[in-house]
Every structure is written in C-alpha cells, then in structure tokens.
Amino acid sequence: MVDEAVRHRIVEIAHQFFIKRGYRHVTMQNIAEELGMSKKTLYLYFASKEDIAQTVIENTFQSISNHVDASTAVDGNPLVALRVTLMKIREETLQLSPFFLEDIQKTVPHLWEYIVRVRSEKGRFVTQLLNKAKEQGLIRSTLNPHIITVLFIESVQTIIRPDIWSKHGFALDELWDTLFSVFFYGVSNEEEHL
What region holds the HTH tetR-type domain (predicted)? Predict the structure, then answer.
C-alpha cells in the first residue's frame, strides 16, 4: 500500500532538485538520499525519474486549472479576473524553473508535448473572459476574442520555449511581464474613447 504522504514528499523533494539543477542533473539516487530512503523504496512509489517529473508537471497544471476555474466562476470585471489568473499562471509556470523546462524540452519530448497540449487546452478560458469583457464594453469592439486568444496563446507557447528566451538573453519572468503588458494594453478600449 502506497503512503500518500511519502509520495507527496518524494514529489516535493524532486521538484526542489529540478528547480535547482534541471531535469538531467537529478538522479533517483539524489532523491532517495535526500529522503533518507533506499532507491529500492523510492521505486516502490515511482517507476522512474520521468514519472516523478510528470507528476510535478501534472501538479502544476492542476494548480493552474484551479485558478482558471475560480476566475471563470467570478462575476465582476472579466479583465481583472483574466489579469489575476494570468499572473497566477505565470507564478506557477516559473515554479517549474527554466532549467527544468529546458531539460524537459530537450530530453523528454513527450512530456514537453504534454505541456504544450495542456497549455493550449487551458487557453479557452482566455476567450471566455474576453467575450465577457467585450459584452461589457471593456475591450475594443473591433477585436475578435478568439483571434486575440490564439495570438496570446501562440505568443506564450513561443516565449515558454527555453531555446527562444535563452537565445535572446531574456529572463522568462521579464518576457511574461512584457507579454502581459502588451496584451492588456492592446485589448483596452481606451482608443475608442479618444
């Protein structure tokens, strides 16, 4: 029988290692030693380091899903809800660590594809909130919320790729902040009132 508290602790320790060292430079031995257990015991909980990494990623996406569900259920200004949710998603994504994401992209392609796929699926909430914002006259009437969402999600897909932001010498958090600023200023209906 699997002890869920031990399983949780394994994921927590592995996540800390992944943040500091990336994926490639963490071994099952490192994790086992940090937990004070044998590798044999560790393998009772997870078949591989890849399984642990997948759990770390799934936990992050579950957290993001919780934020998305909360934002779409709120009545009030949909742009405020969108901004708050995107900032929470930014924080969750940064918790995966640039080193970890870069290693996953290079060494575990099916996990990277999972990240890309889930991110695209989760983007639907952006359209939902932008449609509400358009109905309330909060974004420019000439803009199509679905097109805005596609442009935004594709931009996120690009900047989250470690090979892109590292090639240009930018920090991931700086790219997130710039994208958010351009996005929110760009959809604002202030221009229509000039």
Answer: 4-64
